[in-house]
Amino acid sequence: MRKNYIEVNEFLETSQPGVYAIGDVKGGPAFTHVAYNDHVVLWKNILQGGKVSIKNRVVPYCMFTDPQLGRVGLSETEARKHGLNIEVAVLSMEHVARAIEMGDTRGIMKAIVDTDTRKILGAAIIGTDGGEIMSVLQLAMAGGITADNIREMMFAHPLYAESLNNLFMKLDK
């Protein structure tokens, strides 16, 4: 055990074959959604004969501050530390139609995009419903939807999601 946690491999199995540990006892991010996803991994692996790993899963988080912060994937600092060729899109909530309509324009949207593949590597949204907006980008990341796809996509007006068009237009030179 390290730091009083139960060590597991990428399939959540302990050093004892057939014995697994999930949630906070295994260490790592102590979020309810991580523990829930651990259960999904075990379900697939044990009951469905799968080989699902936790090794490269993307863990989102949300801080229920005022305004809310939602974050997923790499930060700009992490991406640069890894030497990745990136572009950074930033949009103030002052330029988001829904935020203006709701009378709360505090915050920003920020996304990290791989310059070559146009894939979204990470995002941080601070503003009203920042976690909900972040979740849209998390889905895009999981599905391989690029920043260019989102920039050109039609979203209903006036949703916060609609502002993702404008966020990725910030990458246009």
| CATH class label of the largest domain | Alpha Beta
Which architecture name of the largest domain does CATH use? 2-Layer Sandwich
Mean pLDDT: 95
Low-confidence stretches: none
Explained architecture:
The protein is α+β, with helices and mostly antiparallel strands and 173 residues long. The protein folds into two domains: 1-57, no CATH class; 61-169, Enolase-like, domain 1, CATH 3.30.390. Helices cover 32% and strands 17% of the residues. The chain is built from six helices and five strands; from the N terminus they run H-E-E-H-E-H-E-E-H-H-H. The chain has helices at 32-47, 76-81, 97-102, 130-143, 147-152, 163-169, and strands spanning 61-63, 69-73, 86-92, 108-114, 120-126. Strands 1-2-5-4-3 form a five-stranded antiparallel β-sheet. A hairpin with a 5-residue loop joins strand 1 (61-63) and strand 2. The protein is elongated. The model has no long low-confidence stretch (mean pLDDT 95).
Please supply descriptive tags for the structure shown above.
about 170 residues, alpha+beta, Enolase-like, domain 1, 2 domains, five-stranded antiparallel β-sheet, 6 helices, 5 strands, elongated
